[in-house]
C-alpha cells in the first residue's frame, strides 16, 4: 500500500475535526514543530492570562488574592481538571512541585504501605529521574531500601513479596512503547505490589483511566502535551484508598491539616492535600490551566484518534520515501501500542537532527542514537508530517548532516 500524496494529505487536514485548535497556538511561520512531547507550544490565551494574574491579581490585589482570587485552591482546581483527563476523581489529583519531586513523594508513600517490603522496582532504561529518585531514597534509608532494575520484558516476573513499589513510565520516552496499565497493575496487585505510573508522555496524549486500572499513584509533567510552559508544575495522583495511610516524607506546611494554626507538630491534611508541600507557584499554575483547558475542550478520544493517524502517516512516509537511508524504527509498528510519538535509530542521529532543525523541522535526539518526533494533535497537521519527512529525505540525499556545524553536541539535545 502506498502512502498518500500531498493533495490527499491536505484534504485530510481540511476534514480534521480538531483543525480549529491550531489557530489557538503561537506557531512560528514555516516551522514544523514535532517536539510538543518535550515542550508544548504556547497557547495564544496564555500571555493575557499571565498578564492579568501579574498586573491585577498580584499588582493590585496583592496578598488578598490568596482568598479573593482563589490562589489557595489553584493546585486543587487545576488538579481536578487534569483528573478528568486521566480517569481520576477530582479529589485525587493535585498540582505540586516537579515530576521528579513527586516521584520521591509517591515512592516514599509506597514504602509506608507495607513496611516489610523494601525493594523499589523499575525497568532498565526508564526515564533517569525516576530511577535516580529510587537510588536517592535507597541512600537516604541507610541500607533498608534497595533499588532493583530489570529488563522491560522481565518486570512482571520480578514482582515478589519484597517489592514495595513498581514504578513505570506508561509511554516510554524514547521508544514510545505504551504499557497496558490495567494488565500490569493487576499483575502487580496479585503480588501485593502497588504501582506508580509516570504519565509524563501520556497526559494530554493518550486516554488514561487510572481508576478503571485500579492504579495506586501517578505523576506527570505539565510542560509537555499539557502545554503549561517551560518548567510548568507537575501533577500527583494518589488513589483515595491510600490517602490516610501516608505520612508524607516531604511534610511541608501547606500539606498540614491546618496550615494557619502554625502548630509545632505536623498533622497531615485529610485527603490529597497532604501531598502538597510548600507555597505553589501561582504564575506557573495559571499558565498550566490555560493549556489544560484546551486539551479538555478537544477531548482525549478525538486527540488520540488524530494522534494515531499522525504517527501512522509519519511511519508510512518514512518507509516509502526514506527507506534507503538507514533509519531503523525504535517504536512499535502498531499504533495501539504506541504513544503520541515516533522514533528511529540512526548512527548519525544527532547530526541528522541538527540538520533538519536548521531547516525548520524540530524534533529531538535521545542518546545514544534515537531521533524522536512527537505529535501534538491539537496543533500538528498532517501536512507537517509530510514536510518533516521531505526535509529528512533532502538532508539525507544531500548529506547535509555531514556539515561540521551539526556535529558538536550542545548542553540540551
Ligand atoms: C520529562 C519527564 C520527566 C521530567 O521530570 P522533571 O522533574 O519535570 O524534570 C520525568 N519523567 C518522565 C518519564 C519524563 O518523560
From TrEMBL:
Q: Which family does it belong to?
A: Belongs to the kynureninase family.
* Pfam families found in the cross-reference section: KYNU_C (PF22580)
Summarize subunit and interaction data from the UniProt record for this chain. Answer: Homodimer.
The record lists the lineage as:
Bacteria, Pseudomonadati, Pseudomonadota, Alphaproteobacteria, Maricaulales
Which residues are modified to N6-(pyridoxal phosphate)lysine?
A: 224
Q: What is this protein called?
A: Kynureninase
Keyword Hydrolase assigned: yes
Identify the domain of life: Bacteria
Give the molecular function GO annotations: kynureninase activity
Pathway assignment: Cofactor biosynthesis; NAD(+) biosynthesis; quinolinate from L-kynurenine: step 2/3; Amino-acid degradation; L-kynurenine degradation; L-alanine and anthranilate from L-kynurenine: step 1/1
| Entry keyword set | Hydrolase, Pyridine nucleotide biosynthesis, Pyridoxal phosphate
The reaction(s) this protein catalyses: 3-hydroxy-L-kynurenine + H2O = 3-hydroxyanthranilate + L-alanine + H(+); L-kynurenine + H2O = anthranilate + L-alanine + H(+)
Give its E.C. classification number: 3.7.1.3
* Gene expressing this chain: kynU
UniProt cofactor(s): pyridoxal 5'-phosphate
Amino acid at each position: 500500500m502506498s502512502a498518500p500524496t500531498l493533495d490527499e494529505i491536505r484534504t485530510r487536514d481540511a476534514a480534521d475535526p480538531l483543525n480549529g485548535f491550531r489557530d489557538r497556538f503561537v506557531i512560528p511561520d514555516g516551522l514544523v514543530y514535532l517536539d510538543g512531547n518535550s515542550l508544548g507550544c504556547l497557547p495564544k490565551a496564555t500571555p493575557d492570562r499571565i498578564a492579568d494574574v501579574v498586573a491585577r491579581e498580584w499588582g493590585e490585589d496583592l496578598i488578598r488574592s490568596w482568598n479573593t482570587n482563589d490562589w489557595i485552591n489553584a493546585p486543587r482546581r487545576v488538579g481536578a481538571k487534569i483528573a478528568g483527563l486521566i480517569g481520576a476523581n477530582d479529589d485525587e489529583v493535585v498540582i505540586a512541585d516537579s515530576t521528579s519531586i513527586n516521584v520521591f513523594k509517591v515512592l516514599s508513600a509506597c514504602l509506608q504501605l507495607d513496611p516489610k517490603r523494601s525493594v523499589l522496582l523499575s525497568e532498565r532504561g526508564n526515564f533517569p529521574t525516576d530511577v535516580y529518585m529510587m537510588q536517592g531514597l535507597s541512600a537516604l534509608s541507610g541500607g533498608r531500601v534497595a533499588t532493583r532494575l530489570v529488563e522491560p520484558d522481565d518486570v512482571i516476573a520480578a514482582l515478589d513479596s519484597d517489592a514495595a513499589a513498581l514504578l513505570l513510565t506508561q509511554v516510554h520516552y524514547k521508544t514510545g512503547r505504551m504499557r497496558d496499565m490495567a494488565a500490569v497493575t493487576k499483575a502487580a496487585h496479585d503480588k501485593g505490589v502497588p504501582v506508580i505510573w509516570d504519565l509524563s508522555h501520556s497526559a494530554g496524549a493518550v486516554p488514561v483511566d487510572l481508576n478503571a486500572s485500579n492504579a495506586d499513584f501517578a505523576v506527570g509533567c505539565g510542560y509537555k502535551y499539557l502545554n503549561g510552559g517551560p518548567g510548568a508544575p507537575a501533577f500527583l495522583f494518589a488513589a483515595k484508598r491510600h490517602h490516610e495511610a501516608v505520612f508524607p516524607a516531604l511534610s511541608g506546611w501547606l500539606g498540614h491539616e491546618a496550615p494557619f494554626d502554625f502548630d509545632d507538630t505536623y498533622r497531615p491534611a485529610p485527603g490529597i492535600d497532604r501531598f502538597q508541600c510548600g507555597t505553589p507557584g501561582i504564575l506557573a499554575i495559571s499558565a498550566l490551566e490555560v493549556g489544560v483547558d484546551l486539551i479538555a475542550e478537544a477531548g482525549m478520544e478525538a486527540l488520540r484518534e488524530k494522534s494515531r493517524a499522525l504517527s501512522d502517516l509519519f511511519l508510512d512516509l518514512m518507509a516509502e520515501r526514506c527507506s534507503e537511508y538507514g533509519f531503523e524504527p525504535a517504536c512499535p509498528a502498531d499504533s495501539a501500542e504506541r504513544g503520541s510519538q515516533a522514533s528511529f535509530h540512526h548512527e548519525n542521529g544527532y547530526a541528522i537532527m541538527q540538520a533538519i532543525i536548521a531547516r525548520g523541522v524540530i524534533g529531538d535526539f535521545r542518546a545514544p542514537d534515537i531521533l524522536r518526533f512527537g505529535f501534538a494533535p491539537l496543533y500538528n497537521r498532517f501536512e507537517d508530517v509530510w514536510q518533516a519527512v521531505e526535509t529528512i529525505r533532502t538532508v539525507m540525499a544531500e548529506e547535509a548532516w555531514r556539515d561540521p556545524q551539526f556535529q558538536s553536541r550542545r548542553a540540551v539535545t
